[in-house]
Amino acid sequence: MINEKSDGNFPAHGPNPLKPNALKQLQNEVKKHKATLGIIFDADGDRVFFIDNRGRFVDPDVISRLLIWHLKPKKVVIDVRTGWLVRKFKIKNSKLKIHESSVGHYFIKKLMRKTNADLGVERSGHYYFGPNIHNQKNLYFDSGILAAIETINAVSKLPYSLADFSDLFPPLYRSGEINIKIGQPQNIIKKIEKKLKNQAIKTSRLDGLTMEFNPSASPGKAWRFNLRPSNTEPLVRLNIEATDKRFLDNFLKKIYSLISN
């Protein structure tokens, strides 16, 4: 264990695990001790992220996929940012149902209660557990600590390492959440939807604007994005996922161009 002594000044790194340099110390320790995995929490322990045995950051969608395989839930709630790795997950002989929610604790927990879901996952590192997990009366709470315990249990059952598990999946390229300051966010979202609607194969207005593209001219190349307004600030939050790094970069440029114009 590192940085185990409480210090509100956070001398090792800031309390947000996703900020630049926050992971470096843990990555170095994992490689130094040849650890099976590394675990890092945010300040209050409700978010958790993981480092694999090679010292690499593990995408939250990979952890979500691992937990679904391990816990075998019948119903899972995701949010609009969750990527294809979880959305397209099918288990042989399983009746797994995936329900999509708006972003945030309130919406995830509300939909879990409505659908009697067993598990909820967010790319933000939040993991929610329903009453059917372990036959306990978990009141749809999110817990970084329980997520860490179950991830350790899952990794212990793998016939290979966490790094090898991550490498089983085709590469996907993600922008992370990008905050773009702009006045009248709703007008911008409507403008982008109008501009791109004829190119999209799927469009959703569940939370902001989500669009998915799979051009026939580029087999195997696809991308999706979610653009949603902040509820408290004059900005939009953008998340992009693509099967090709060039598609990600080009689409990011296109979005910035549409916003600036």
CATH topology of the largest domain: Alpha-D-Glucose-1,6-Bisphosphate, Chain A, domain 3
What number is the mean pLDDT? 91
Beta fraction of the residues?
Answer: 15-25%
Shape field? globular
Helix content: 25-40%
CATH architect. name of the largest domain: 3-Layer(aba) Sandwich
Q: Compute the gyration radius: what is it?
A: 19 Å
Q: What does this molecule look like?
A:
The strands form three sheets. Strands 9, 10, 11, 12, 13 and 14 form a six-stranded antiparallel sheet that branches. The N and C termini lie far apart (50 Å). This protein has 261 residues and is α+β, with helices and mostly antiparallel strands. The chain is globular. The chain contains eight helices and 14 strands. Strand 11 (202-204) and strand 12 (209-213) form a beta hairpin.
Features:
Alpha-D-Glucose-1,6-Bisphosphate, Chain A, domain 3; six-stranded antiparallel beta sheet; five-stranded mixed beta sheet; 33% helix; globular; A-D-PHexomutase_a/b/a-II
Question: Could you provide a short overview of the structure?
Answer:
The protein is α+β, with helices and mostly antiparallel strands and 261 residues long. It has helices spanning 24-33, 60-71, 84-87, 105-115, 144-157, 162-167, 185-196, 245-260; strands at 38-41, 48-51, 57-58, 75-79, 97-101, 119-121, 127-129, 141-142, 173-174, 178-181, 202-204, 209-213, 223-229, 235-242.
